[in-house]
Specification:
single chain, 657 residues, alpha/beta, 10-stranded mixed β-sheet, two-stranded antiparallel ribbon, 18 helices
């Protein structure tokens, strides 16, 4: 369950359909409510992202100051106490603590995934135990569990389902069991749920229980999909296919590969155990492990995010942690009676996820240390036998600055590149959602005449990634907005400079300044207006036209300096005369649109990673065998982006890490 307060805002529907949608979600949420307690604790990644927002504990070094200006990133920052500052400093300055924190998060996540195997089997086993009782007339004991995941449903839907159906049903069931126990307490060691059900209604109850168990199993399966998707977004899991099953309801996803794996493993567990007691022991250990991890992470949140004294966090950890540790140790006693399964599975999954994340970090560091200079890019031209061909070249890279090594390799092997060159970085930020109007961070690479740009596309770990067609058209639209803004800003028509940096301009510095481009509909008459602050709610997506307003946020690389500018271009102002600046502006826009008509090429790196000489045996096994095996058997970047094969240019790269 996400801990971000803004998450519920994504459930916006029209007034006409709001109640219809809410009631439909309330019905669908029944499968989530009848589930397992552990899935409500898959806030591990939400907690981890919350900690990463307030402290520099992430292992991937691609954090930017511009990310902190996101409306979903901004948080209230109460004054930090000296003790909380010391805890933050210690945590930030020791990389070993970063690794330990990541392993703790991965362990909790893998335990939830492990419970995804056990819950469907144990819930169906529990339901059909009534059939065994009815057929054999023998008493059968059955280890019940219940959980809730709010990740796929709105708060109102959960409240309606729980208040009007789930809660009354539970009260009636437990009252009935209590009444039965009060009269049959002498046989309490043989009593299970179905024994307390009157024989006349046992078959209807059995049917309802089986249906509920089938629907309830979907909760943990959906939660597993959500966790895998979040892990993938944060670079902790190999790329898999994510299918968004609803165009209206955000967050409902399906992952075919994971679904098939869960099915096979569920069948294997059922056949292997054939005993609900062993399944219950395994599920209990997984649940308690997740609760223990969540308590540890929450204690860090209390210090780093809520800025409470460490003593408060320590009391919280000791109180809840001691209780959970007691239950966890009791579950460990059942290690040989089924509790070994989630431990074994978690160790395997943690290894896979950590190896993938470790190799991803090493690849990023390799790119960072081997990027080429801007002077090299600007020197490319006819004198070196390099030609510029029509079209747009999108060079995908993980770097947020600099020229990636795969582009230099591309030019070396094919001495030509496109007239419009865009270095695209698709980046995940530690927030659940990024508003569409704040998604594109655009800047120049070199002077305007070079026609080279950088675009950082930011997604939250719960965001739906755009398909390639809409991404291409929106990218061109954002570039056009940036070009207009840049020319007007450079020539003083829009003045956003402070008194202390009035000499700075966008064109005078090659990559020191990026702008967040978003558009809103506009019906005013003013040519432009400067606003010191614009509320994020006023920014919405819309196609930019000549009668539009463009919201721009300027980001300084040297510090957190934010300026928002709003300006409008209308037909009258464009027709007032062609100055030299306007001619150059129109020429650049013309080049952009002509390049779009000529076609777009997607330039992606096809990487092979090898451990460098002298590496330890463990590192060689992890990189040369483990990571490369996972890379060969997961979806490539071109498949994940759904790039048309005819538009794909792959550049082979060998990473020596």
């Amino acid at each position: 369950m996400s801990m971000d307060l803004g998450y519920g805002k994504c459930w916006s529907t029209s007034k006409k359909d709001s109640w219809k949608t809410t009631l439909l979600l309330a019905y669908q949420s029944l499968g989530v409510v009848y589930g397992d307690l552990s899935i409500s604790l898959c806030g591990t990644f939400a907690l981890y992202s919350l900690i990463c927002r307030h402290a520099k504990v992430g292992l991937l070094p691609n954090r930017q100051l511009a990310d902190e200006a996101l409306s979903t990133y901004k948080l209230e920052r109460p004054p930090e106490t000296n003790n909380s500052s010391k805890v933050k400093t210690v945590l930030e300055n020791h990389k070993s603590l970063h690794i330990a924190l990541l392993i703790l998060v991965l362990l909790g996540t893998c335990m939830v995934i492990g419970d995804g195997l056990l819950t469907p089997a144990i819930s169906v086993f529990s339901a059909v135990s009534g059939l065994e009782l009815s057929m054999s007339k023998d008493h059968h004991q059955c280890s019940e569990a219940m959980f809730a995941d709010l990740g796929h449903f709105s708060y109102a839907a959960i409240q309606i389902a729980f208040t009007f159906l789930v809660y009354p049903a539970l009260i009636l069931a437990y009252m009935g069991q209590a009444a039965f126990l009060s009269r049959h307490h002498h046989t309490i060691h043989k009593i299970g749920f179905y024994v307390s059900v009157p024989e006349s209604v046992r078959w209807p109850v059995l049917v309802v229980a089986i249906l509920a168990s089938v629907v309830g199993s979907q909760a943990i399966i959906s939660g597993t999909f959500s966790i895998i998707n979040q892990s993938q977004s944060l670079g902790c899991f190999p790329r898999v296919k994510v299918v968004h099953t609803s165009e209206k309801i955000h967050g409902q996803i399906y992952i075919p590969e994971i679904n098939w794996m869960l099915m096979i493993l569920c069948i294997a567990v059922t056949i292997g155990f054939r005993d609900i007691k062993h399944m219950g022991n395994a599920s209990g250990l997984a649940v308690m492990a997740v609760m223990l991890v969540t308590t540890c992470l929450t204690s860090l949140v209390i210090i780093l995010c809520w800025h409470k004294p460490p003593l408060v966090a320590l009391c919280f950890l000791l109180f809840f942690g001691s209780i959970e540790l007691l239950y966890f140790s009791a579950s460990l006693i059942k290690f040989l009676e089924g509790a070994w399964l989630p431990i074994l599975l978690a160790l395997f999954l943690v290894t896979v996820m950590f190896v993938w994340h470790y190799a991803t970090i090493k690849k990023y560091e390799y790119d960072l240390h081997n990027k080429v200079s801007l002077e090299w890019l600007l020197a490319l031209g006819p004198s070196l036998g390099i030609a510029r061909v029509p079209g747009i070249g999108l060079v995908f890279t993980d770097l947020t600055s600099g020229i990636p090594a795969n582009f230099s390799r591309f030019v070396t092997n094919l001495p030509a590149f496109h007239r419009i060159l865009v270095f695209v970085c698709i980046k995940s930020v530690p927030v659940p959602f990024v508003p569409p109007a704040e998604r594109y961070l655009v800047g120049r690479v070199g002077p305007a005449t070079h026609r080279s740009y950088r675009c950082i596309v930011r997604y939250g770990y719960r965001d739906v990634h755009q398909d390639i067609d809409s991404f291409e058209s929106e990218l061109v639209s954002r570039l056009a907005d940036f070009i207009r803004y840049d020319w007007y800003k450079t020539h003083g028509i829009i003045d956003t400079c402070n008194e202390d940096d009035g000499s700075r301009s966008v064109a005078s510095s090659s990559e020191c300044r990026l702008a967040v481009i978003g558009t809103v509909a506009f019906s005013g008459t003013s040519a432009f207006e400067i606003e010191d602050s614009v509320e994020p709610a006023s920014v919405s997506v819309g196609f930019p036209t000549v009668n539009s307003v463009t919201d721009v946020i300027e980001m300084e690389s040297s510090g957190v300096v934010e300026r928002r500018v709003r300006f409008a271009l209308d037909n009258e102002s464009e027709a007032d005369g062609r100055s030299e600046m306007e001619v150059q502006l129109q020429d650049e826009l013309k080049d952009l649109y002509e390049a779009q008509q000529s076609g777009t090429a997607f330039i992606l790196g096809h990487s092979h990673v090898r451990a460098k000489q002298g590496s330890s045996l463990l590192k060689r096994v992890a990189i040369n065998l483990g990571y490369n095996f996972l890379r060969r058997n997961c979806r490539g970047a071109d498949v994940a982006l759904k790039v048309p094969p005819a538009s794909l240019l792959e550049v082979g790269m060998v990473y020596i890490v």
